[in-house]
Amino acid sequence: MHRSNSREAGSPTNRVTEHLRESYDAAAECVADHPASSIMAVFGVGFGLGLLLGHALAESPREERHSLAAFGRQMLEAMREHMPSSLARRLPA
């Protein structure tokens, strides 16, 4: 019985899998050798990414805020058109 080409020892899939396994083992060994430094490095990367993401989300352009407000007004107008007048009067102007 013959194996398929993707399962042969020199196949690209096996080479990539072996490379990933070696990289994982090297990283695991580094973390085992330097646990405190590893924790601080991961914390620093996570904190930095959190700051960047928070800044990007907090600094929305002014036009974007105005377009969201306009969209909200359009939604309220559409709801007013399709609901009883007794309820529509209670929606904000």
How would you sum up this structure, described in words?
The protein is an all-alpha fold and 93 residues long. The protein has two domains: 1-59, no CATH class; 61-93. The protein has four helices and no strands. Helix 1 packs across helix 2 (35-58). The longest helix is centred in the middle third of the chain and has 24 residues, at 35-58. The radius of gyration is 28 Å and the shape is elongated. The model has no long low-confidence stretch (mean pLDDT 80).
Highlighted features:
93 residues; mainly alpha; 2 domains; 4 helices; 0% strand; elongated
If you compute it from the alpha carbons, what radius of gyration comes out, rounded to the nearest whole angstrom?
A: 28 Å
The dominant shape is elongated
Structural class: mainly alpha
Q: Quaternary state, please?
A: single chain
Q: Tell me the number of strands.
A: 0
Low-confidence stretches: none
Amount of beta strand: under 5%
How many domains, in number, for the residues?
Answer: 2
Q: What's the order of the H and E elements?
A: HHHH
Percent helix, as a range, is over 70%
**What average pLDDT do the residues reach?**
80
The end-to-end span amounts to 78 Å
Count, helices: 4
How can the largest sheet be summarized? none
